[in-house]
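Thread: "does anyone have the structure for this chain?"

Original post by V.I.:
We have the sequence but no experimental structure in hand. Need at least a predicted one for the grant figures.
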Amino acid sequence: MLHPDWKDPLAYAFCERLTSAQWAWEFLRRHPDYQREWQAFWNTWKALEAAYGKPPNRDFCAWKNDPRAWVPASECVDGECRIDQDKVLIECALGARWGFHKFPPDPRDDDPVGEGRLSWRPRAEAPLPVLPDDGLEPGPAHMGLMFDLSLPLKPQLEQARHQLQLEAARRRREQGLQPRRVRTLREHWIQLLRVLDAESEGELAQAREMFGEAAVTEAMKLRDGGYLDLLRVPD
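Reply from O.Q.:
Generated one for you, tokens below.
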């Protein structure tokens, strides 16, 4: 894919208008595995079109009888794809593997989200950690509360909601806790995109020197699956 000049901050001006769904796409489309898998998929798709035509003149029956149009259902771990005799259509399998519905978009496509050609699959929320059983120490943005499971939960949950709201307000006021919003994270995410674009140019060492090792680590994490977490960040 073509990407901006990572050394020029002005080349990323387009990021000013991105939503969380579009930010997720920006990180995914820079994933080399996605780029390779999409190209292999596209080569197969074009071969199928050459053999059986395009809509509305496509020979759908012949297309569906071609083994190239399918992968084993075991390769679609998402579980939401339509399974036909233990196989799944290649477009559904590729989309599900990377977290979205509809036809998997070309990584060179600047904005399939805004154009409606990409729709992220709803992501199941992970269970909240159990403190201290999970061995986790609460950070500045975390708070643990204890519930009595032998008593009704509804009034305890209402009380917990009230306490959490008060504590969040206090930490913002006294400790400078920043709520996670697209607008507050935009400049940081731009730096991470610049790291990934520098890597694609073979200039990761220069980006590491400019932005630091922590930025490189975070950029790789977002590209390698963490992009789905961005969908939770309010616009």
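V.I.: this helps a lot. The first strand starts at residue 70 and ends at 72.
O.Q.: and The two ends are 26 Å apart (CA to CA).
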